[in-house]
Amino acid sequence: MAKVLMKGNEAIAEAAVRAGCLNYFAYPITPQSEIGEYLARRLPEVGGMFLQAESEIAVVYMLYGAAGCGARAFTSSSSPGISLMSEGISYLVGAQLPAVFVNIMRGGPGLGGILPSQADYLQAVKGAGHGDCRMFVLAPASVQEAADMMADAFALAEKYRNPVMVLGDGLIGQMMEPVSFKAQKAVAMENKSAWATTGMSARDGNTPNLVKSLHLDPALLNQHNLDLKAKYERMAREEMRWEMYNAEGDYQVLLVSFGTMSRVCRTAVDMLKAKGVDVALLRPITLFPFPEEQIAMAAERSCCKAVLSVEMNMGQMVDDVKRSVGRQKPVSWYGKCGGEVPTPEEVAGVVEKTIADMDFT
Amino acid sequence: MARFFTRPQSLADRPTHYCPGCTHGVIHRLIGEVIDELNLQGDTVGVAPVGCAVLAYNYFNFDFQEAAHGRAPAVATGIKRVRPDLMVFTYQGDGDLASIGMGEIVHAASRGEKFTTIFVNNAVYGMTGGQMAPTTMPGQRTTTSPFGRDVDRVGMPIKVAELLAALPTPAYVTRQSVITPKYINRAKKAIHKAFQLQMRNACYSFVEIVSTCPTNWGMTPVEAIAWTENTLLAYYPLGDVKMPEVMEVTSAN
């Protein structure tokens, strides 16, 4: 279909509807409120359900109740709101329910700011909630990709019966870009009669379905966690996504960056290339599972002298990059975390300084 | 020989974990009987949050969702909004509903969500071992009010039924008990009315049931019933607090 110029938040909302999601629970917070505003008008047009809740805490449990009935549902929020939802995210993981969260990140900690940030990387990837709890995390780098990811997010959530987060930042939510929506047929949720509380009469009429996360028997709880772990390992085997840029030649430095920041890095790579400096970019598209093997292999190349993780935060993903690279190559971080986006010139400057420092030693 | 008193189909054939003298078992049975009478077993989803009744799903024979502490009204909202055809009820204690879950219950009632809340008020946190609840009586000793509830420091107990009845949204709000056969019959009629109003899509319905907790009160079951009658019911009067302006429904029996 033809491209339309849309704000990221509105494109995300429209893409969810087109992916067959007719249920959305809302609580306003900048910079993602347009998602709820759009759906308050849009969902009634398609016979969907929009409800504004009293808090993010209520939102996540409304999502739990709807998902527990086997309904496709999602919500969106921004950093402090996601913190309030994190208890419920853990319950969704424990009860193995499919649900989609969109986090349009703003700066923190605390009230922080309302400008773009990637400072919820660790929260999304490592600390989604209490307990041994993991979420699938997708990081879009454009409005188009954010829209495309919504259908993928629902499909993954339902395939694995696990919450999925689309982790964008304030720029993805607020900027306008041309977007075209994939011609797609919404797929019905499969096999929900085995677990969803649809009412017994919708099934055999005498076997109750139970949505729960409590396992008081330690052996059963251990097994439950082993089952969840097996699911996460399967995600890592089957769903890992990443993208390489300018990695064909003999690059001296490997940049690792996701989301909005990766687009700036791409421009920096082009600028450096024009100056005769070869730099590659690896963009993780899934942050959990994390493409550690791919980063390790890219860093192993003998041409590569250093790895630089560029993030709009105080250095979070860099820990995972270090873990992936090991001690074979130096790994450093560059970024800003007040809401300003580092410019391509700044990134290029840091890369040049990194190379110069190495030559000096 | 004909059997006149049998287990409701909606109750599981399983002994409960509740303490001697606890009224949860009676309330479970009333819910099971009403669901059978209304022929709703196959179309019911119960929601039980953290508390003594978190394992309620083991004792009922229909679909159930377990909820986090205080969040059952939000979970029930999510269920009911995507499946308005189902009969949905929350089963919540006073620590859960009147403390951590006060926001969720007030807003669910205020939106007029078409589900029913069974609110089991025994003036104490049960499962965690007898701590003070928002409903604990003045002077009542608990593990966190060892010298008795001091109303100068922590205020008076909350009358949740009256609080919810003050909301302008139409609702059925009633307070019942199950400590005598007479009260049990009335409580059953109230549950019947609440579920019927829900299935008519009429309004939110709230049935508070003043209950006992002999274990955490440090009483025998008989003493607990007397204390409920003399102390709790003097502060929490029984009866309908609010009736919706809708067609009267028929009561069971």
Automatic annotation (TrEMBL), chain A:
Residues 253-347 form the Pyruvate:ferredoxin oxidoreductase core domain. Keywords: Oxidoreductase. SUPFAM superfamilies: Thiamin diphosphate-binding fold (THDP-binding) (SSF52518), TK C-terminal domain-like (SSF52922). Residues 14-191 form the Pyruvate flavodoxin/ferredoxin oxidoreductase pyrimidine binding domain. Gene3D superfamilies: 3.40.50.920, 3.40.50.970. One of its GO terms (molecular function) is oxidoreductase activity. It comes from the Bacteria. Pfam families: PFOR_II, POR_N. This is 3-methyl-2-oxobutanoate dehydrogenase subunit VorB. It comes from Desulfatitalea alkaliphila. The gene is vorB.
From TrEMBL, chain B:
Keywords: Oxidoreductase. The lineage of its organism: Bacteria, Pseudomonadati, Thermodesulfobacteriota, Desulfobacteria, Desulfobacterales. One of its GO terms (molecular function) is thiamine pyrophosphate binding. Gene3D superfamilies: 3.40.50.970. Residues 58-195 form the Thiamine pyrophosphate enzyme TPP-binding domain. This is Thiamine pyrophosphate-dependent enzyme. It comes from the Bacteria. The keyword Mitochondrion does not apply. It comes from Desulfatitalea alkaliphila. One of its GO terms (biological process) is cellular respiration.
